[in-house]
Design a protein that fits this description.
The structure holds 2 protein chains of 2 kinds. By secondary structure, chain A is an all-alpha fold. Chain A is 84% helix and 0% strand. Chain A contains 2 helices and no strands. Classes of the chains: A mainly alpha, B mainly alpha. At the A-B interface, helix 2 of A face helix 2, helix 3, helix 4, helix 8 and helix 9 of B.
Chain lengths: 64, 247
Amino acid sequence: MYFDSFAAFLHMDGHGVFVWSVYGSAVLVMSLLSYLPLKRKKSTLAALASTLESCALSNSSESH
Amino acid sequence: MWSFFHKLGSPRWFYQISGRFLPWISVTAVSLLVVGTIWGLAFAPEDFKQGNSYRIMFVHVPTAMVALVGYYVMAAAGAVSLIWRMKMADVVMRSCAPIGAAMTFLALLSGAIWGKPTWGTWWVWDARITSMLVLLFLYLGVIALYEAYDNKVAAGRACAVLSLVGMVNIPIIYKSVDWWYSLHQPASIKLTEESTIHSSMLQPLLFTAAGFYLFYATALLLYIRAELVFREQNTRWVRDLALGKRD
């Protein structure tokens, strides 16, 4: 490792706050970019499944 | 060759094949990013002028690169959807916009945070930074324009035209540091001559750059798949997917 201690690694000679805030926001934005489409797909499929199931139920009750 | 393009135009085929590639691409992206980040943050030497603040570069440069290349992808998809009326191209164009906007935002944000300790200011209205801000507005414009139309076919066409017109901004961004006097430094990595960045800093940068490109591909596939499922709700394969039948 380039730094002498973990504290020096976090502090980075006073630049730590700048460096870590950039890496933190990158992780946050990239997590959102992965989570949002997965959530959208899941909720679309869930809504579609409940519509299809209720249609199937009403069809089967009509046939009785 | 042509049959490949025909298949590429099929939402169902694209959904299936992308699902097979996604785990590999995403795992490689995360591995490259983790290795490059740890290397860049903890092992690369300090810059003799900028100190440790230069470590922001390992995020700043890749996000800016991906933001620009992402615009090419969006404009190319827009052109294909305008010329051949290809449904998949419209889906790709639509999916590019939020990811490109997020990458441009990260490039601007990391640049501003890097500017404070290096230039003594968060923001300057110089050519490179202003043209990147225009890029962010172009991406946001495509998103807003798409949402503004009720008729999604017309929305797709308007967005394709906007993204093609916006292409004019891309060479301006690339050449801005050469054409105008700027606080922003010119490119350090060159294809035609020797790079002006030391290999101890270039090597971790290559890892994070490759990681960000693959992350872009991962995010794009995820957005495309979500959009496909939404648009193809009335088809048999999406209904089977919703009901948990294996497609």
